[in-house]
Amino acid sequence: MVLQTTGIGSVPFEDMDEAIAHSLKYTVPFLPELKSSENFLARAQALLTKMRLPPELAPWLDALEKSEKHPAHVKVQLAGPVTYRKHCEAEGIALSASWLKDHVAASLVLSKAVSARSAAEVVFFWDEPTLSNKTSDADWRTLKDAIEIATHSKLPVSLHACGKLPLPKVLALDPKYLSLDFGLLPAAHAAVSSDVVNFIKRGGRFVLGIAPDIEELEPQLTDFVREIAKYTQETWVSSACGLWGWDLSAARSLPEMLRSWCSLAERGLA
């Protein structure tokens, strides 16, 4: 089992150079979203309505090209269609009849902008923090339709959610990677259910949100990773959600915290 580290997106830094340097400390660098910049919903709106790429993208790609590291993957993210629609409704922003296709098209633009300059595999995420057990059937259908459109557009989509999820329903969507808060997994799934095993066998992978509460998640966390190692040799770990609300010193120590846990876990699995 190879354990990789990555980030969700938002960081508490206001300095571009520090945010980018922080991203490059993970084995899977991610597109950072500065605290002083637009929030992830405003970014999605700018990309959908003006085709304006995130301000951190170009300097982040520059840094990746100059880095001596050559990661196998890089991660980028955009507000997902369900969360974006809720934002538009709350702001009184009218959506066109083709908004879902437009959302996929904008996602493809962002993904291609990265792949054009990076030799690494681009793993594209839709950030859906509003998904939970209370999400309506209509919203699940929207997400399912969006993923089908993305698949037809040759855009593999991964999902991030930090709420308490109806896991079988999310896994049935077949995201490439599913990023979730491990601490919110029901006990039945934390013990590796048939839904989890079948998801992995179909090619799905997990990004386990384990920080900042790594110690509190043991021994269930290591047991889960040991069990899924029977079916996959690739799992990523991250914080449970974005870092905008994190203390600066805690955020700065996160990459090393995750690396240390990965090293211990890998030795235990060897």
Could you give the topology of this structure?
Blueprint: E1 2-5, H1 16-23, H2 40-50, H3 57-66, E2 73-79, H4 81-91, H5 99-115, E3 121-127, H6 137-152, E4 157-160, H7 167-171, E5 177-181, H8 187-190, H9 194-201, E6 205-211, H10 214-217, H11 220-228, E7 234-239, H12 248-269
Parallel strand pairs: 1-7, 2-3, 3-4, 4-5, 5-6, 6-7
Supply the key terms.
single chain; 46% helix; 12 helices; 270 residues; globular; seven-stranded parallel β-sheet; 7 strands; TIM Barrel; alpha/beta
What would you say this structure looks like, in words?
- The chain is an alpha/beta fold.
- The protein has a single domain, classed as TIM Barrel (Alpha-Beta Barrel).
- It is built from twelve helices and seven strands.
- A seven-stranded parallel β-sheet has the order 1-7-6-5-4-3-2.
- Helix 5 packs across helix 6.
- The longest helix is centred in the C-terminal third of the chain and has 22 residues.
Quick take:
Helix content is 46%, strand content 15%.
Q: How many domains comprise the coordinates?
A: 1
Overall form = globular
Overall radius of gyration? 18 Å
Q: How would you name the oligomeric state of the polypeptide chains in this document?
A: single chain
The helix/strand class is alpha/beta
Instruction: Write down how many β-strands occur, each being a DSSP E stretch of 2 or more residues.
Output: 7
- Give me the CATH fold name: TIM Barrel
Strand content: 5-15%
Order of helices and strands: EHHHEHHEHEHEHHEHHEH
Q: N-to-C terminal Cα separation, in Å? A: 8 Å
